[in-house]
Design goal:
The protein is of the alpha+beta class. The protein has two domains: 212 residues, Alpha-lytic protease prodomain-like, CATH 1.20.1510; 91 residues, 2-Layer Sandwich (Alpha-Beta Plaits). It has nine helices and four strands; from the N terminus they run βααααααααββαβ. Strands 1-4-3-2 form a four-stranded mixed beta sheet. β3, α9 and β4 form a beta-alpha-beta unit. The longest helix is centred in the N-terminal third of the chain and has 39 residues. InterPro entries: Cation_efflux, Cation_efflux_CTD, Cation_efflux_CTD_sf, Cation_efflux_TM, Cation_efflux_TMD_sf, CDF_Transporter. Its main location: membrane. One of its GO terms (biological process) is intracellular zinc ion homeostasis. One of its GO terms (molecular function) is zinc efflux antiporter activity.
Length: 317
């Protein structure tokens, strides 16, 4: 039976809308983070706090991650063609790699500055302003983190979720700067670079989480619960006797499926095709963020029949 594929116009419109939401999130969060970083930068110059410098650099890096993501969301709107037959959604995963590299660079720079200040401790000026800047950094980053993670999960964007995790870590590292400021106020200037090193460690943890998220997408990993849900949807379709293999993959922030169903071997081609269309229709409407599905129908019977005998030698295990 020839596989049947169907792109829903409604799903296409939804995909465009999710890209638009992603662009809105990036624009708003970029403005918030750049404002936060600008305020902190002024206080860094006035205070000489290396911990606050590390936090400011991280905020700037976090804001700049909006650039590759915005490019990816823009590319993802392009229609598929004969060269890119699945469209340009993978650009989002490539942007995720850029985000991981930016996080890595911010960790290295923050660590370098902290070690340099450990070797050459200096007094911190305007401790009260450093504490205020740390609080501003926390509030700005936590708001951005919640916004990015919420929308990223709603539209299925791993890159946007990774970016949100990055912002959340920035928020907690901003609070850590308060410890450095407190230590300096108590006469322990070494507290500032020590907190700078702790911030570097925190950045490394979020780097690990973001790298894992992007790695899963690049390897076509999906939540097993989505596979279970797809199998249950297919099993409820009238005419489907059994459900064969179910493969799901993310392309950008939309899901694509390739599934096999078994129908009565005495069923006509027209009827089998109708079952495949209904199975596809159910999947597209009932499985969240699924944009397209390819359904292959196999005959269930007669007993001991092997309808794929000629393909056995070509299938890898």
């Amino acid at each position: 039976m020839t596989p049947h594929s169907h792109d829903s116009a409604t799903k296409t419109d939804t995909a465009l809308e999710t890209s638009s939401r992603g662009m809105r999130v990036l624009g708003i969060s970029f403005a918030v983070l750049m404002f936060t970083a600008a305020v902190q930068a002024v206080i860094v110059v006035a205070s000489g706090s290396v911990a606050l410098l590390g936090d400011t650099l991280h905020n700037v890096a976090d804001a700049l991650t909006a650039v590759p993501l915005a490019i990816a969301f823009s590319l993802g709107r392009r229609a598929a063609n004969r060269r890119f037959t699945y469209g340009y959604g993978r650009a989002e995963d490539l942007a995720g790699i850029v985000i991981v590299l930016i996080i890595t660079a911010s960790a290295a720079l923050a660590g370098y500055e902290a070690v340099k200040r450990l070797l050459d401790p200096q007094d911190i000026r305007a401790v009260g302003w450093v504490a205020a800047a740390a609080l501003i950094g926390f509030l700005g980053n936590e708001w951005v983190a919640r916004y990015r993670i919420k929308v990223g999960r709603e539209i299925g964007s791993a890159a946007l979720v990774a970016d949100g995790l990055h912002a959340r870590t920035d928020g907690f590292t901003s609070l850590a700067v308060l410890l450095g400021a407190g230590g300096a106020a108590l006469g322990f200037p070494i507290a500032d670079p020590v907190v700078g090193l702790l911030i570097t460690v925190a950045i490394c943890f979020v780097l690990r989480d973001a790298a894992r998220e992007i790695y899963h997408r690049l390897m076509d990993a999906v939540d097993p619960a989505l596979v279970d849900a797809a199998e249950q949807i297919l099993a409820r379709v009238e005419g489907v006797r059994r459900v064969g293999s179910v493969r799901l993959r993310w392309i950008g922030h939309t899901l694509h499926a390739e599934v096999e169903i078994l129908v009565d071997h005495d069923m006509s081609v027209v009827d089998a095709h109708a079952v495949a269309v209904e199975a596809e229709h159910r999947l597209i409407h009932d499985l969240a963020r699924l944009r397209a599905a390819t359904v292959h129908t196999d005959p269930d019977g007669p007993p001991n029949a092997d309808h794929h005998a000629s393909l056995t030698a070509h299938r890898t295990r």
